[in-house]
Amino acid sequence: MNTLELKKTANEVRKGIVTAVHSAKSGHPGGSLSAADIYTYLFFEELNIDPKNPQKPDRDRFVLSKGHTAPGYYSVLANRGFFPVEDLKTLRHTGSYLQGHPDKKHIPGVDMSSGSLGQGISAAVGMALSAKLSGEDYRVYTLLGDGEIQEGQVWEAAMFAGHRKLDNFVAIVDNNGLQIDGDVADVCSPYPIDEKFKAFNFHVINVDAHDFDALKQAFDEAKQTKGQPTAIIAKSVKGKGVSFMENQASWHGAAPNDEQYAQAMADLEKVGESL
Questions:
Q1: Which of 42, 119, 129, 148 is deepest in the core (most CB within 10 A)?
Q2: How would you classify the pairing of strands 61-64 and 140-145?
Q3: What SS3 state is found at 270?
């Protein structure tokens, strides 16, 4: 895909996020929207995956460590062809396979059930080590929240990945600056994030999470890095694409009402028309 196609796809992913959360009357739109471009680049460009064969043995693995942003994960999986886009409207409904957090037993394309913050990166590091031990060449990616990295388990996993030189492993931090209680710098500052990962022997790349050319460069650089894992610190805008949600901590875990949904979709339609 070229950059324009990626932008258009990401806009569709954002529409799916807003639709799913509105339909569920609950969920986490802010961090899903901030990561929409990352999700789009990963699933449409970076990952070796096949929607027709989600369990193919040599596939790249993806673990959503910040599992509450499942609406973004589900929307990109649906747009990539793993299941019908229409099913996004069943998010969190009784009997739906699209639960509030990813479930690998029931959702095609999900490699790890996740949601308890801090744990996803540990599972992903285990997958990366497994590939090394078995001589397989698949790569493992995990997406973390900047609030999530306040969890101690994240740094235990980082220490292990750096020590074992897992150069098939990429940790992406969606650095939108906000968590449920406000600014991450005020709640329990994780800064400087890049220097922390460097201290654990990671190759570190700082990137604009909404610039597809920059994302391509970052992920290409990660693939070329040998002898150490990579951390991509992606500076993003929480609620990106929806005017009244952007940079508002209150939209971390709230669903739009009917009027707000109409406004959000109108915002995204305008973005689509401008592309």
A1: 148
A2: parallel
A3: helix
Look at the chain and count its residues.
275
Q: Which helix (H) or strand (E) holds 134?
A: helix 119-134
pLDDT in tens, the chain (275 residues): 999 999 999 999 999 999 999 999 999 999 999 999 999 999 999 999 999 999 999 999 999 999 999 999 999 999 999 999 999 999 999 999 999 999 999 999 999 999 999 999 999 999 999 999 999 999 999 999 999 999 999 999 999 999 999 999 999 999 999 999 999 999 999 999 999 999 999 999 999 999 999 999 999 999 999 999 999 999 999 999 999 999 999 999 999 999 999 999 999 999 999 99
Q: Which residues of 165-202 are buried (b: 16+ CB within 10 A; e: fewer)?
A: ebbbbbbbbbbbbbbeeeebeeeeebeebbebbeebbb
